[in-house]
Amino acid sequence: MNEKKGTLKEKLIRAKERWAREGRLLTGKAGDPERERIPPGQREVRDFPVLDLGVVPRVRLETWRLDIGGHVERPLSWSWAEFKAQPQVEIVSDIHCVTAWSRLDNRWAGVAARHVIESAKPKPDTRHVILHSLDGYTTNVPLPVFAGEDVLLAHAWEGEPLAPEHGGPVRVVIPRLYFWKSAKWLARIEFVAQDAPGFWEVRGYHNEGDPWQEERYGSPKR
Ligand SMILES: Nc1nc2c(c(=O)[nH]1)N[C@H]1C(S)=C(S)[C@@H](COP(=O)(O)O)O[C@H]1N2
Ligand SMILES: [Mo]
What we know:
Blueprint: H1 3-22, E1 43-44, E2 65-70, E3 76-79, H2 80-85, E4 89-96, E5 101-112, H3 113-120, E6 128-133, E7 138-142, H4 143-146, E8 152-157, E9 160-161, E10 171-173, E11 186-192
Parallel strand pairs: 1-5, 2-11
Antiparallel strand pairs: 2-3, 4-5, 5-8, 6-7, 6-11, 8-9, 8-10
The structure holds ligand MTE and molybdenum atom.
The site of molybdenum atom has 6 residues, from loops.
């Protein structure tokens, strides 16, 4: 990474840590997903903003692999062809980013997280899933959330291959949590018995991140 990009990245991280300390955007009211479409403190956008640490990893499909392991009976490593040969599903879901934008009705295509779980067979005391990305980013999710029927390893958005800036070739999509839990440039899925907070979770962001409960920020875990 060059020096300028490094500085921008540090500035962005500092700003988002400050938001967490100040509790920016908090309304103090929970929302009801049965009756409302937009969680508290969010506003709808029509474009598709890009949010990351400012470095888009260069990925070649010929060498791309997805490793699935940790606390499992059957560790797996899929090439691009193997990944594409898994059962494919299409899911329409909403995005809720902790920076307050929500984007409704996104049509994703890919491999269901449930299929990954059934294939790798996590051991009975598995509690969490750590997602590892090619830019060094990590995020953690409880296994029951990752096992949700709407959770996807997505390679397409609105009928087109997922763009590199949005996490292509493959990103995770977890509609029930704030979008920072949806790891872009997915490289490894690690099942674990012991939770481990990820990149934003150790920088003041909530460990679970349910937008309807406004779980934007948590206590610092450093
Ligand atoms: N690998 C990786 N995944 C990531 C991030 C990142 O920096 N690196 N940023 C997260 C954050 S904070 C958000 S809001 C969403 C943004 O996804 P988008 O750029 O497709 O809108 O990706 C999430 N996944
Ligand atoms: Mo974000």
